[in-house]
Each structure stands twice: as C-alpha cells, then as structure tokens.
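For the sake of clarity, the format in which proteins appear in this thesis is described at this point. The record quoted next illustrates the convention:

___
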Amino acid sequence: MEVRKMRQIGQVACAGLVAMLASSPAFAQEGGGINLVDLFSQMGAIAIAVAVVLFIMSFWSVGVSIERIYTYSQARKQSKLYAPQVAKHLKDGRLKEAIALSASKDFRYSHLAKVVLAGLQEYQFQQESGGAGLAREDVLDTVRRSIQRATALTASDLKRGVSTLATIGSTAPFVGLLGTVVGVINAFTGIASTGSGGIGAVSAGIAEALVETALGLFVAIPAVWFYNFLTARLEYFNVEMDNSSSELVDYFIKKTA
C-alpha cells in the first residue's frame, strides 16, 4: 500500500515537472513565440528520441529520490524509537521480548532492528542448541558473522536505486550533448538546403540544439544533488549499524563471561 502511494506521489511530481517545463518562458513565449509543442513538431526523429530518453531519465530519478527519501525518513524515525526500547529489554535480560520487538512490523523500516534481530536470533539459537559443542569464542564468532551478514544485506538494501542517480547524473549531459550535435547538424543542413546562412535557415536547428542541452542539464543537476544527499544519509546509517553491532557483540561477551 505504501509503495503504491509512493508511486502515485512520484507520478504527480513528474506531471508537475512537465507542466512547469512546458509553461516556462524559455519554451512558451507570448506573442506567437516558439512553444514546446511547436518545437517538438519541428524536431527530427533522433532529436525527439533523445528528448524522450531525457524525460524518462528525469522521471526515473525523481521517482527513485522520492522513494529513497521516504524510506530513509522512516528508517531514521523508527530506529530512533526502537533503540531505547530494545536496550531496556536487553538490560533486563528479556531476550525473547527483544527479539519480538525487533521483528515487529512497527520497525520494518528500521536498519538497526534488522541488524540487532539477526544477532539476537543467532544467539538464541546457540543457547537453545547448547552451543552445538562450540567453545565460547566460537559462539561469539558465529553471532558476530551473523550480524555482519545482516549489516551487509541491510546496507545493500538501503543503497538500492541510489547508484541509478549517479548514472543519470553523469550520463544525462552527454545524452543532451548528443541532441545538441544533432541540432547543429540540422542547422548546417538548413544552410545547405537554402544556400544562405540567414537566421531563418539555422534558427530551428539552433533552437533544437539549445533545448537538448538545457534538458540534459535539467535532468543531471537534480540527480547529482539527490545522489550526494542520499549518499550522506547512507554513510550515517552505516555508522549507526556498525556502532549497534559493536554494542550488541559487547553485550553478548559480557553475558557469556
């Protein structure tokens, strides 16, 4: 349900983005100036294809950014509520209550809950199975490896889609440049067909080239900004998971001493 809601928000944002671009003075001028519809009708097939690719990249980056920002916001909010509650259960020695809390749907977005749950479940399994004949250090190593696996999986899940923003931010200007080159070629083709270098012969090709350049930058700049913003959040989450893992291992060391 929440994923569908995020998709609807992304669609509304994308529609607003197109409406804002279409109503921009750069594309729609009063007094019979060139507007977006007229410009697209004058473009060639390659230029239109480049523009469509750029719009798809823009919608993709906006959708990924909105979904990741929502996920990170929920992760931070739920982890802030989860940490003191699980700490209280562990301090009182209520292992089963701590596991139940970590597995609760109320904390399904919490990165800390996923990491701590893996360690608690592994420790409980070793305790119920009598350690399977393992020494104390071996049991702790088993728990530690379980926590490390959960940390790696959680970090990978948090990174999902973020690399797409880097790809879009780095390639969009070059895609726009491709459209620019096509527009310049059309401008020179107009000169060749008319036999003159007047503004009327080159205006359509130059306008096409400039629009493609603007679209490339319009797509790349927000994608790079969101990528840097989300990467900073990821680093913060990784630090939190590392700290929680260390604290949980220290707790098990003291408990098995």
